## 1
Amino acid sequence: MAEIGYGYGSEWHLMRFMARHRKLLEKAIRESIGNVKKEEVFEWYDFLFGEKGIASDSELKGLSFLENRKNLDGYVSGWKTKQSWDAVFKLDDVIYLVEAKAHIDELSDNKPHGGESTEEIKDFICKNLEKLNISINEDQCLGKYYQLANRLATAAFLKNNGIDARCIYIYFINGYEKPNEIKNASAEMFIDEINNEQAVLGLKGGHLEDLLHHVFIDAKTGEIINPKHQ
């Protein structure tokens, strides 16, 4: 778990909105998801204690948030300790895997992915998405947009095992003003990068819109932004 930036960045703003602007955050999420009954209550999963660092908290990793994982075969063993979630919540019996972003660079990286489990992870991503009739470019799924590929595949894996799950990405507009380094992004900038990552990954078909949701919030004003084109 990376150290949380004081006053800037995706983790900071997610924690801030969860603590101080919970109703607004949940309202934005409901609007993005749609078709959620008003009486349904958000069940946010707590983090764990014990990790070194200022906060001494440990993100939820792999499938650790599930009460019973005994009957889930085919999950990539290496992710049990390496894959982390910014937050996880349940709403209307659906599990949502949360990723927060505050600037464009957070959507991609140029690190090598897979390690000794390269073929296993690639097979996991492609097969689980294909079962939902969602195609993905096998040659790109371990590339710069690997995070989205493996997050979607994990949600698909849960769906394929009878557990309704989805990914939800929360983008904080004007959310990265680090001292001497401002990397704020507009909704349009995020959307351009979202479209690019989906094009590079070759994501299409099936019910991709039911597996992936996007939320845009201005970190300074709390305005919920609903882009017309995405």
## 2
Amino acid sequence: MESENPPRNIRFVAYTSEEPPHFTNESMGSRVHAQSCRKNGDNIQGMICLESLGYFTDKPGSQELPTLYGMPEETLTYTRSRGIEPTVGNYIAVVGDEQSASFLARFDDAFSRHPIPTLPLVMPEMRFSDHLCYWDEGYPAIMLTDTALFRNPNYHKHTDTVETLNFQAMASITENLVSAIKKLCS
């Protein structure tokens, strides 16, 4: 008997060449992969980019707002409605673009039961990691992040060491990610 839900392929891909001078260029590892998928006609239902998921703090004023023009008031209201103070670096952002909005909503529904609050945002200007290459190829993609440079004072510095990471939060994120992927694939 054939299943109503055919099995899905899940690929775990680690990219090289994400940082400058490759970032946004043709040599960027995720660009090479996304273009190869498009060329092969791969039916990608969604890409989840894991970007900087280890720095958390409850210190007021520890989180900058990741926008060029400030956070719109309705976004700030929504953020607070999810139990998040936008200037405290103790939540996870899930970022997508307009074409990824449906995938982002499904992922957030499957993932948001996490003890660390999540903030789903449609922010196409957040082109700071490997997900952007999938957006460019027309695939739905989201970035799961602690917001990196908007929070972590050690980001890309010699002080970015293992001692600055929150392993309990990272383990919890990993467990919830596995659960969310299972839900998305069922």
## 3
Amino acid sequence: MSNGVTLDNLHKRMLDNLKIGVLLLDHKLCLRYLNVAAQNLLEISERQATQLFIGEIFIGAAEDMGEMQLALHGKISFTKHRVELRTPHGKSVLVDYTINTFEENGETQALLELYSLEHTQRISREESLSNAHATTRELVRGLAHEIKNPLGGIRGAAQLLAQELPNNELHDYTNVIIEEADRLRNLVDRLVGSRKPLHKDFINIHEVLERAANLVEVEARGRGIEVIRDYDPSIPAIHADFEQLIQAMLNVVRNAMQALSIPQVAHKLGKIYLKTRVLRNLTIAAKFHRLGLSVEIIDNGPGIADEIIDSIFYPMISGRADGTGLGLSITHGIISQHQGLIECKNAPGATRFTILLPLTKPADSH
């Protein structure tokens, strides 16, 4: 070709930019190629998978393998819906898949397309949460306005009353009114969240995580809790607000520390894992990104109660009796402002918060 790119390389680049997993199989159902989306879905590299029999990639799927072999012999195509496949790593993936057969150099080959239902459901869940969160935020802001006006009146009246009191000992009562009014105002401000614009710069995500981790390590001293780092040093700088991201990460790490500190939790050693990785070809808020950053915050605590797991990112929802229920709501707002996503997978002994952020080059940010 005139631009110096071979046709094969061009086709490969096109396939690697697809959001669906694509696998090329020979007449023996051995893998000849899989695109980036398939590698991410199956958590296997092209080098590891090439020449493997498809049955070595999908464990315990004898029925599906038999149907694929029949399709190859009969040179037919078919689609199956809502199939759960298990990988050698023990990961289960729920997919729709289509197999199309074709002839190449006298050999029957097959193209297997995998449509991740978990990916589709996640996008739907993300859009639903974002819409509901935006509606809740507007309702809370309206309510906050109605609360702050009378609070200002109460505070002002207490100050005027304090000036008229003949006995200084009675000032203790007006001071209580003023201090409680201020406390309620601050609570309402936190509930509403900051409207300040982001001050973005190119920053190191590990500096953000270290600030959050160091603060929590000081708070957790003497509680038998260890913070374990698993950082990918190849992650480039991200375009983000340094202080806001510290707040977002700190809220999640502190929640993990508090979950490990409650009296009901029995553990020899509480562990909080901070894990970073680069992801390729991911979709956040229905927008495709070639590169993204994944931050996982995992703890071995008791998990989140089933009755609140679907609403933990809403304000005033907390699993602790002394919690305000604002930390995760604030974190969700900050991550959303960064065009990112936060989600939670809940299980006793392995509560996992995943934060996804797009990676942009300096030229892309202007």
## 4
Amino acid sequence: MLIQTAHKNILVDTGIGDYHGSKFDDRFGIQGEKNPLIELLSKKCKLAPHDITDLIVTHLHFDHVGGLGQTTSEHVEVFPKATLHVHKNHYEYALNPTQRDTGSFHSQYFKPLIERAHAEGRLHWLTGEEGEVLRDGADVIRFRCSHGHTPYLVHPYDEKFIYMADLVPTSHHVPVPWVMGYDIAPGRTTVDKTDFYKFIQAKGLTMIFEHDVTAWGGKLGLSPKGEFQLERAMEVTSSDPLISELSFD
């Protein structure tokens, strides 16, 4: 997700990357061209990597931060001027995960890049259960954490939108009991979803789904039984007028 304010170009997550090798690509069904994020930013947004000012990392699973780096003669940052916003507790967990989820964290790739950003003064540690990520004048991005998918999963939000990341990865996961097999604590996920849904309804927010190829977002509603459900899906089409609302304008 790209958010543009008056003075900032902000990315939320970076995708899986394209340097893992054919065996890995076959296992996870990865398709696409080289440098997909760079190409997309260039063709659709007229932005180069050095134009990205901030990068919000929801969590450090390989399919969310793989695009943070690229491998040439060495593994280097794709966005060399961006400030990285990373939750400190999640980073510490990612370096010492359980055997259940150790394969989801490719620390050999992300750890040197985060350390480099820290050394260059481009690392902003997020702490606690909620708080402010960044601001640009009157424009503010805040965050809340969930814990069922992975500890201290960051959900950025503003006055209109909230990024669900892997708490609700697709529109099909909106029902509270529908959780991912990757979740480290599925029961906690249902508790987190319920709490987030109450927050989302109170704020009137639109959810953004990171892993849905047909619906980029959706609005929450209640069934006749009082259960949370998807009231409206925002489909991925170039003519969708709501796409233009994915900014602070």
